[in-house]
Amino acid sequence: MLICIATAYIRNITIRPSPIKDWFYFLLVISLINSLNYSLLTLFFSFNLNLMNYLVNTFFTFSFYIIFVSIFKYYLKGLND
Question: Are 3 and 30 in contact (CB under 8 A)?
Fold first, then answer.
């Protein structure tokens, strides 16, 4: 939910939204959220988590973002025609 809110906010305040700029901002936001999640779970709840799982999750989410943006843009173009 925080990722959606942050991405929507930045997209609305930019004059000319660009998928590449959104892509890198998305990396920043998911890294921040994952680090916050990891910190809270390890410090307050004493969970024993593998940091590599978070890094792999962030990498694949970041990698697939641009692909899904292209798919949804094509889909919306088809709906609007």
Answer: yes
For the chain, what are the domain ranges? Answer: 2-80
pTM, entire model? 0.66
Q: Radius of gyration (Cα) for the chain, nearest Å?
A: 16
- In whole angstroms, how far apart are CA 1 and each of 4, 6, 15? 5, 9, 24
What is the residue-level pLDDT of the chain in tens, covering all 81 positions? 777 777 777 777 665 667 777 788 888 888 888 889 888 988 888 878 888 988 898 899 889 988 888 898 888 888 886
Buried b (16+ CB within 10 A) or exposed e, 38-54: beeeeeeeeeeeeeeeb
Residue owning tokens 């890094």: 55
